[in-house]
Amino acid sequence: MKPSLSHSLSCLAFALVVSAATGCTTTAKNPKDPFEGFNRAMFAVNEGLDVVVKPVAQGYDTAAPLPVKVLIGNFFGNIWDVWTAVNNLLQGKGEQAISDVGRVLINSTAGIGGAFDVAAEMGLTKHAEDFGQTLGRWGVGDGPYFYWPIIGPRTTRDTVGWMVDVYFDPVWRLDNVAWRNSLVATQYIDRRASLLPSDKVVEEAAFDKYDYIRDAYLQHRRSEIFDGEVPYEVSDDEPVR
Questions:
Q1: The pTM is what?
Q2: Taking Cα atoms as reference points, which of 224, 237, 229, 240 lies closest to residue 88?
Q3: Is residue 142 part of a domain?
């Protein structure tokens, strides 16, 4: 049986984790980033790829009318709401899971396949949960930080979570290769375009862009896992009271 693209990507990500963990240990300034040498090399690779990707995203952002961009974002958001509902259920947040299911049902029908976020107008709040967050809620630790080509920053736990996310993403599981690749590319460019406003902020604020992105990612993910109510952590050099 021919392996799916999602399976191939998952195998690749797993191989990269093993490779980095077994052969790229460096002396790192941040204990959460023990493979900093490897990660900085991958960061440089991504920066090189972005020389091509960013202009495409800028062209899309400029050329596509705002209503079109909203429709595209809503369409992919509606697909993600299905997986969000599953993860909210796995995290024991039943009320949010029911709300997510309601969003999918309403937006897939009254919202014309998710093109319009009718559910939001009806007061159903949009959530965003992935399997990495679910693993975090289950008590799985971050593990070492990695910076991967294409997919960007991930902890070890979130790398595994990303594999599961991709495996269950309906877009990645389409049998029609042309449609699948077109949708994946559109989603990727749409997401990259959504990050354009933050590029200038990072460039202006960061003495070391790599450090800035790593620290911001780790802080943001921790906030997501605890739904903004992050428990206090005692650092290694802080006396216990």
A1: 0.82
A2: 224
A3: yes
